[in-house]
Amino acid sequence: MTPNEANRADLGKDPARVSGMFDQVAAGYDRTNTAMTVGNDVLWRAATTRAVAPKPGEKILDLGAGTASSSASLARSGAQVVAADFSPGMLAEGQRRHGSIRNLSFVQADATDLPFADAEFDAVTMSYALRNVNDPKKALRELLRVTKPGGRLVINEFSTPPGSVFRAAYRFYNSQVLPRVARVAGTNGDAYDYLNESIRDWPDQKKLAAWIREAGWSEVEYRNLSFGIVALHRAFKPA
After folding, report:
1. Which annotated residues bind S-adenosyl-L-methionine (predicted)?
2. Which domains are seen in the chain, by residue range?
3. Deepest of 61, 176, 183, 196, by most Cβ within 10 A of its Cβ?
């Protein structure tokens, strides 16, 4: 078994295996994402930042922050941003790139057992990370716990394109093209085989919205980005 195979995650989403896989791809992660999404990742990040609407003086949790690209975007508003992830390799890469931002801090954290106090954050957000948690419903409850009453949630996650023709083309791209692009970009292609599997197995927009409501969030809504390749979910903690 090669090192890549040893850390290849599967749909069991064992935290150690998923973390190890992301540790391996950390250095080339952002470059590969930009190549695979044909630059759409930049647009999706901007849409997420606008949805969070960070303000100076607020405290914001970016969970599953990876290399902290979204965290840095949020921190530019003047808010105090905590970039949290369970992959130490990702966090190390994020600190290398964005550690000079004074209102941005880094914390290793398990999404299902967050090391934060109740009602600590004005807003919480996750981008393309909830899908990798072995108990996403528990993670949604943990996010609710650490959010102040009236605080907001933004989840940006891969989703299901509603149009059948585009959906079929997208699934072909994910299964046949995406891993090859990852390998050309110099990243662990096995990790992107898992990415395709996790996207295919993930619930659609309406189902995720229902999970968010079940966790206790209110005013749940979503909108599709890039024809539904990803969906941006928003909600509030009841005041």
Report:
1. 67, 85, 110-111, 127
2. 3-236 (3.40.50.150)
3. 61
